Amino acid sequence: MDFSPIIQQVYNALWYLIPLAILAGILKSPWFKGITGEFLVNTAARLFLAKDEYHLIKDVTLQTDDGTTQIDHIIVSRYGVFVIETKNMKGWIFGSANQKTWTQKIYKHTHKFQNPLDQNYKHVKTLEALLDIPASAIHSLVVFVGDSTFKTELPDNVVYAGGYIRYIKARHDVILSQADVETVTAEIEQLRLQRGFTTNRQHVNHLRQKKAPSPPAAPSIVPPITASTTSQSQKPCPKCGGTMILRTARKGKKAGNQFWGCATYPACRGVMKHA
Known about the structure:
Keywords: Membrane, Transmembrane, Transmembrane helix. It comes from Seongchinamella unica. By secondary structure, this protein is an alpha+beta fold. It has helices at 4-14, 17-28, 30-48, 116-130, 163-169, 178-191, 197-211; strands spanning 55-64, 67-77, 80-88, 91-94, 101-106, 109-114, 138-145, 148-150, 158-160, 235-236, 243-248, 258-262, 271-273.
């Protein structure tokens, strides 16, 4: 018996379910949830925070000693630098400041996830090392979006949805001058890696490598800088004596200009003009 006509009829009746299933998969994916959460935070900032007073920088990937770190949002103002980690989750959320993992509960399903305050801690420490401002001027803030409910008492800097606007506006003490705000904003824009697929892929690979066990590294020998190695492509740092590398300014009045910067930056901030 030929089942082809029956199969064709079934296909004609149900073909539209295929793109719907694909769309449902995309909507439920962590990638789409992340995009949605960041969009909501960005939109709230644009609507309720004055642009001349609060400077929003989104999706910032910075180089660290062991790879890269990715920050969802940074808001720079005279009242401090707010480092924001966004979580798009649903269900009941249980946690405390000192717990390594928090709990998400949806009916009978329980899921453990990293304490987002610990996750944001590295972001804050990275900015502390890169920016020449007091550590007290940098504030960690975690924002939950989506259909979630806090079932335990959480720290004041863990808020739900638009509550992060109230948290920021509640700070009235001026910490940074307007010149500081402009300098910090320009430095972040200059230090961030170029946005795009390549940067995101490298960051994801870095996270996977951190989770995977690795064999012990062989000791490395760094040759001393001598007259033969100090050439037009390699110079000694005037501050620490290490190697200088050629960099290009991305922002500010000197955007596009090249300069020599210490290879150990931000540990050493030695710079030299490029002839």
